[in-house]
Amino acid sequence: MTYFERRGDALYAEDLPLAQIAAQLGTPTYVYSRAALTQNFLAYANACRAHGRGDGGALVCYSVKSNSNLAVLNLLGKLGSGFDIVSGGELLRVLAAGGDPKKIIFSGVGKSEEEMRLALSHDILCFNVESIPELHRLNAIAGSVGRQARVSLRVNPDVDAKTHPYISTGLKENKFGIAFEDALATYRVGHELPNIDVTGIDCHIGSQLLDDAPLLEALEKVIELADQLHANGIHLHHLDIGGGIGITYDNEKPVAVADYLARLFTRIDRWRAEKYGGAPISIMFEPGRSIVGNAGVLLTRVEYLKHGASKNFAVVDAAMNDLMRPAMYDAWHGVQSVHRRDASPLAYDVVGPVCESGDWLARDRQLALEPGDLLAIMSAGAYGMTMASNYNTRGRAAEVLVDGDRFSVIRRREQAQDLFALESIVE
Ligand code: LLP
After folding, report:
1. 308 burial level (CB within 10 Å; 0-12, 13-18, 19+)
2. φ, ψ for residue 408, nearest 5 deg
3. Which of 48, 61, 203, 355 is labelled catalytic?
4. What CATH number does domain 34-292 carry, 2.60.120.10, 3.30.830.10, 3.30.70.380, 3.20.20.10?
5. pLDDT at 165
6. How much distance in Å is there from the Cα of 75 to the middle of ligand 1?
7. pLDDT tens digit sequence for 86-111
8. Which of 27, 54, 86, 387 could be stapled to 301 by a disulfide with Cβ–Cβ 3.0 to 4.6 Å?
9. Does the annotation count 126 as an active-site position?
10. What CATH number matches the domain at 4-32+293-419, 3.40.640.10, 3.30.565.10, 2.40.37.10, 3.40.50.450?
11. d(CA 250, CA 405)
12. What is the pTM of this model?
């Protein structure tokens, strides 16, 4: 179920008219639904439980980069979520939101020494390591602070995720992970290092996957590698399957999380039963988009209507700096009028005020509009606010969390002074 629905002519977030948020707080504003976030997280957690992976058998580590607002992290943490982070900043965010360091995994291809030290000081669950130099650096730093670093190696299974090339990560030509043919040798290096505790395999092949076939193909490679490692005396505690299940932006039909997890757990259970007498292995996931993407919209107001020679433009107060996905990936987001007008629609490009031709949010949409109307840019909960910038010295949008017929401001709108507060003039 989606929590952004029309009642009569008005668009609601849960039981709250979106227009009420705009009237009280202004625009542009990101609006998230607490019920949608909860439902989407529980789709993973309940499927794990349904397959006998309650306590400790599986851990859903929400991918913080998709939406890192403290209130979102806090809500998911209270539902039992772990966290997949990619920077020291994200680690500090998760801790500030009350997240459990024992449920944090640290991904990313370029962790700095400082980030490693910070993560070790909080004794996080696991580092997802992507190269031999990173293993050596982590070993040295762990030794210097007197700790063992738990490590998964991120392997690159060379599987085509069949998604946008910018968000496909599991092919040989991508910068991510350790080439499959080098994996065993790299595990041996890790296994020998005194301050490294090799505990898992990690694999993430891309984002916005509609079909789970590439994920299950990657799982076969991971199983093959786990068997090889076992034969070489390296016994793993967990498999991390990454994130990646896609969402409906337009008319895509992504696999249901419950169906994907059912196929995955069935395969893992058969493997464990056949080869290891049913000995359990813990499973981790790193979903982002499928938890937050359709739990949020970007609320914006039409400033001007421009009827050009060959096109009509709706110039709105949100821009590419607020939602980068269309400009960056040619991404399609639905656009809905918050109040439907009883007039004939025209084809509009919905564009922002930023001085770039690439500043568009949607193209060629049939809309009946008047200046001052509110629009909701749909499916904007993931990679929306986290990719926002201050280009054109535009303060980033406010964020609110709706719960029933009420909302809370979870990030105030940035003011211009906030944007240059760290700068100084040289005499
Ligand atoms: N784990 C790793 C190691 C990742 O790199 C990512 C996403 C995820 C998990 C979460 O994937 P998800 O479940 O959200 O598909 N900015 C792009 C998406 C970039 C994805 C980066 N990695 C977009 O707006 O489409």
Report:
1. exposed
2. -120, 140
3. 355
4. 3.20.20.10
5. 66
6. 20
7. 999 999 999 999 999 999 999 999 99
8. 27
9. no
10. 2.40.37.10
11. 27
12. 0.97
